[in-house]
């Protein structure tokens, strides 16, 4: 009996699924389960137990470099079920919840872009997820980013489906715990989905109001912890401000660099809104990437594992009009996504600078690439007199890999980012 010839996609799946599985097992049982001296879960667990016993929560010495509990009273209320477990069990439960949430988020992204688990894109995406610094350190440190990644993807899916109330609830719950996804409020605002904005803003107010009489020191958060959260720190901080403070760069020079990147971000967002807002999938996911990368780079605090929230943007590489189909973009992505370390023990000073600078370099380069690609498309279209038809080049490589047949047509929002 003759063996049927295998397609390139089938061969890719045969290679990538085992790699993804083994990488996942290594990541969970060798890296995440043993934990790390950086323990983000312990202060959360201690704060929840203090909240449940009606004891003061916001009592940490914020001058130390240990992880601090910085979530508002409403966030404490939402996380309170973790107090049902002892600390070791709670950390394990929290770890696997974040792992499963991140895996589900990738599956939903596949569906959003018109793919199923039968596509070779699926094992490639999971392999990249399990290799990424973002997921490894989220699980190893015991952080909540995996659940927030899922919430981000669910929010984007609901936004594209015009399910405005549900989208607002999902985004609002994340803001009630920590405001990492606040910049995404701009998306429903420019799409005139005002109920989404209103509900997302109301959710943290409502949860805080509910938690206020249940907490022992809710006001202390606003006078003690919130001001600290807005300060620039010179450790574990990959934002431009953090790097400037760490290297002793003049505040004026740091401000000028931030201003320059703010201009690049504004230009990118304007071009996306002006010429791509009707291509919903491409516009929403690309604008998400620009907004969040700008937040990590320009705000007071940016940490490498925040890069998990850029996965929806990275998925746009499969679209024919993606701004990521060039090598500088993937040099930038490797810089902030890789778990590898650049510490050089033979040359410790050079290695330390390389390691601490690679994440802001990657985020900054990504913002530059997006702005340059969009600006180049705009200038080329203006020279050729075709701005009325958009700024996409006349000839673009097709979507790759091809979409799965059983995923096409199930949700129109998934394919609106593709031009004919």
Automatic annotation (TrEMBL):
Residue numbers spanned by region Disordered: 392-420
Keyword Ribosomal protein: no
EC top class named in words: transferase
Pfam families per the UniProt record, alphabetical: GT87 (PF09594)
Source organism, top-level taxon: Bacteria
Membrane topology: Multi-pass membrane protein
Gene Ontology MF term list: glycosyltransferase activity
EC number: 2.4.-.-
Swiss-Prot/TrEMBL keywords: Cell membrane, Glycosyltransferase, Membrane, Transferase, Transmembrane, Transmembrane helix
InterPro entries: GT87
Stretches that traverse the bilayer: 12-33, 93-114, 126-159, 165-187, 194-215, 252-273, 280-299, 305-323, 330-348, 360-379
Localization: Cell membrane
Homology family: Belongs to the glycosyltransferase 87 family.
Protein name (record): Glycosyltransferase family 87 protein
Organism, as annotated: Nocardia halotolerans
């Amino acid at each position: 009996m003759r063996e049927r010839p295998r397609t390139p996609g089938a061969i890719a799946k045969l290679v990538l699924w085992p790699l993804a599985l083994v990488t996942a097992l290594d990541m969970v049982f060798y890296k995440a389960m043993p934990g790390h001296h950086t323990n983000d879960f312990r202060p959360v667990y201690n704060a929840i137990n203090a909240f449940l016993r009606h004891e003061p929560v916001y009592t940490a010495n914020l001058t130390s470099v240990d992880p601090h509990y910085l979530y508002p009273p409403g966030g404490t209320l939402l996380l309170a079920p973790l107090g049902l477990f002892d600390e070791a069990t709670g950390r394990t439960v929290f770890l696997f919840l974040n792992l499963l949430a991140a895996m589900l988020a990738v599956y939903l992204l596949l569906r959003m872009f018109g793919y199923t688990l039968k596509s070779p894109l699926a094992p490639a995406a999971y392999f990249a997820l399990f290799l990424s610094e973002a997921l490894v350190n989220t699980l190893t440190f015991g952080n909540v980013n995996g659940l927030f990644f899922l919430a981000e993807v669910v929010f984007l899916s609901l936004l594209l489906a015009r399910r405005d109330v549900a989208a607002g609830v999902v985004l609002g719950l994340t803001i009630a715990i920590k405001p990492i996804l606040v910049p995404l409020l701009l998306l429903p605002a420019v799409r005139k989905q005002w109920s989404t904005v209103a509900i997302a803003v109301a959710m943290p107010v409502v949860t805080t109001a509910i938690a206020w009489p249940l907490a022992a020191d809710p006001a202390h958060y606003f006078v003690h912890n919130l001001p600290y959260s807005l300060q620039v720190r010179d450790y574990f901080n990959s934002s431009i401000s953090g790097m400037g403070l760490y290297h002793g760069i003049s505040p004026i020079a740091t401000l000028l660099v931030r201003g320059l990147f703010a201009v690049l971000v504004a230009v990118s967002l304007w071009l996306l809104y002006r010429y791509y807002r009707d291509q919903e999938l491409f516009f929403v996911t690309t604008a998400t990437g620009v907004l969040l990368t700008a937040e990590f780079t320009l705000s007071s605090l940016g940490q490498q594992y925040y890069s998990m929230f850029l996965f929806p943007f990275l998925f746009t590489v499969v679209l024919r009009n993606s701004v990521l189909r060039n090598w500088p973009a993937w040099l930038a992505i490797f810089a902030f996504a890789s778990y590898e370390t650049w510490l050089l023990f033979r040359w410790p000073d050079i290695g330390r600078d390389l390691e601490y600078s690679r994440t802001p370099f990657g985020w900054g380069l990504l913002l530059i690439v997006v702005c340059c690609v969009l600006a180049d498309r705009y200038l080329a279209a203006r020279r050729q007199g075709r701005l009325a038809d958009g700024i996409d080049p006349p000839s673009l490589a097709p979507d790759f890999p091809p979409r799965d047949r059983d995923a096409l047509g199930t949700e129109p929002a998934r394919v609106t980012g593709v031009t004919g």
